[in-house]
Here is the input.
Amino acid sequence: MANTASLFSARLALTPKTALAGLLDGAWWPRSRDLAAELPPLVEALEGRFGRITRVAVNPTCWPVVPHRVFVAGHIVYVGWFTEEDSDKMILLSCAVGRCDLLVIPPETEPAAADRLMTAAARPGNVRAVGTLMSDEAANGLRVRDARRVEDARETDGGTPATPPPHPVVGARMIPLPWNMRR
Here is the structure.
């Protein structure tokens, strides 16, 4: 039986070829945490732009099993690991171009969040590191979920407008200013 991950193309967003170099060359959103199954479609998709990929380095905290080598399109890709880089980063090495750094979006990420992350990582001249991109998206996702919760609550209570938050100085001692004093 064929592995379903290899039947699909890689979900990949690459930075366009421009003079604006950034910290990342793009983002990859794998369908599972099975690196042996996910790596072949990714490497095949990248070889057109970066040449033959010979080595890959990943952080083992995101992958339950890190194989030492993976066969891709008739050649071997050696897989290593690192712990000093961001856990959501992947480094690929090629003979032709050199190094390709990708943001690895966790497979369980919601599609809208993955789309935002892929767009941000593939933006030319991006200077935000992997950790910053992920924490910014986590904060953004929290705001989106909170707004959705408020909207859902509004719909369930008959469309009543939400009560505005209290003014920050309510209950504080008010000091009269000279122009505001009454005689």
Summary: Residues 130-156 form the longest helix (27 residues). Residues 1-7 have pLDDT under 50 and may be disordered.
